[in-house]
């Protein structure tokens, strides 16, 4: 079972931060000039690169922060972060430690995996299609392929690598939409989101699920 927690969060991109001075000369050691794994390591966090190939041949990069600075325990729940449109795994780390959502989760003791969908900077490769020479075939995809192929491939990869059978899925904008696409075979008839006001004796059975989780989906 996958417990899915879909949130909409406000990204604190440096672009909108008053601390950015665009007239400063480009410094190659500045955060904005670094690739995501190098940026994470620059801030003293561990980072792994994962390469995952989808059944339809797209070669995708995932970045992992296995643990943070504050908490390091053997049992760390897996959190899968899926970025929005025109974004990448950089979204979760650009604001830096204590602000970037990936760092916050890692410091809270989560095993954080950030994927990059096909066509983004880190995932612009295919086993036999060239994004420039075969542009019509390479770019012929939409939310559908992300939901039906990308997310399940990533989840299978994570399950295989971590031996966990549960993960938290956190999707921002398109990252949330594609999760719904993946689950589109499910029709919610009177779904239950909260049991807070329940008075039935059945509560004894379901009490465990009473708080916290917004959406719980059997996969
Ligand atoms: C921006 O950077 C330039 C060059 O380093 C500097 O002269 C200027 O004062 C800075 N502006 C602000 C608002 O910090
Ligand atoms: C991960 O990728 C980055 C950038 O491509 C590279 O600099 C780094 O050495 C890689 N890390 C590992 C552990 O392979
Ligand atoms: C799981 O990973 C191993 C090696 O890391 C690989 O040989 C195996 O094919 C993978 N299984 C699946 C279902 O992806």
From TrEMBL:
<feature type="domain" description="Partial AB-hydrolase lipase">
    <location>
        <begin position="36"/>
        <end position="94"/>
    </location>
</feature>
<dbReference type="Pfam" id="PF04083">
    <property type="entry name" value="Abhydro_lipase"/>
</dbReference>
<dbReference type="GO" id="GO:0006629">
    <property type="term" value="P:lipid metabolic process"/>
</dbReference>
<feature type="signal peptide">
    <location>
        <begin position="1"/>
        <end position="19"/>
    </location>
</feature>
<dbReference type="InterPro" id="IPR029058">
    <property type="entry name" value="AB_hydrolase_fold"/>
</dbReference>
<keyword id="KW-0732">Signal</keyword>
<protein>
    <recommendedName>
        <fullName>Partial AB-hydrolase lipase domain-containing protein</fullName>
    </recommendedName>
</protein>
<dbReference type="InterPro" id="IPR006693">
    <property type="entry name" value="AB_hydrolase_lipase"/>
</dbReference>
């Amino acid at each position: 079972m996958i417990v899915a927690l879909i949130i909409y969060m406000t990204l604190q991109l440096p672009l909108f931060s008053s601390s950015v001075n665009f007239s400063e000369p480009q410094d190659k050691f500045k955060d904005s000039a670094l690739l995501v794994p190098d940026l994470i390591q620059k801030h003293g966090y561990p980072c792994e690169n994962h390469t995952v190939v989808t059944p339809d041949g797209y070669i995708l990069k995932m970045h992992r922060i296995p643990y943070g600075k504050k908490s390091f325990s053997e049992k760390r729940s897996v959190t899968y972060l899926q970025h929005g449109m025109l974004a990448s795994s950089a979204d979760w780390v650009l604001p830096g430690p204590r602000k970037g959502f990936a760092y916050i989760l890692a410091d809270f003791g989560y095993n954080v995996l950030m994927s990059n969908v096909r066509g983004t900077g880190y995932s612009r490769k295919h086993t036999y299609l060239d994004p420039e020479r075969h542009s019509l075939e390479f770019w012929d995809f939409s939310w559908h392929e992300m939901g039906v192929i990308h997310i399940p491939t990533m989840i299978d990869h994570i399950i295989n690598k971590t031996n966990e059978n549960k993960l938290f899925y956190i999707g921002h904008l398109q990252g949330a939409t594609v999760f719904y696409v993946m689950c589109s075979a499910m029709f919610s008839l009177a779904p239950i989101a909260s049991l807070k006001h329940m008075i039935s004796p059945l509560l004894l059975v379901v009490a465990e699920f009473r708080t916290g989780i917004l959406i719980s989906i059997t996969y």
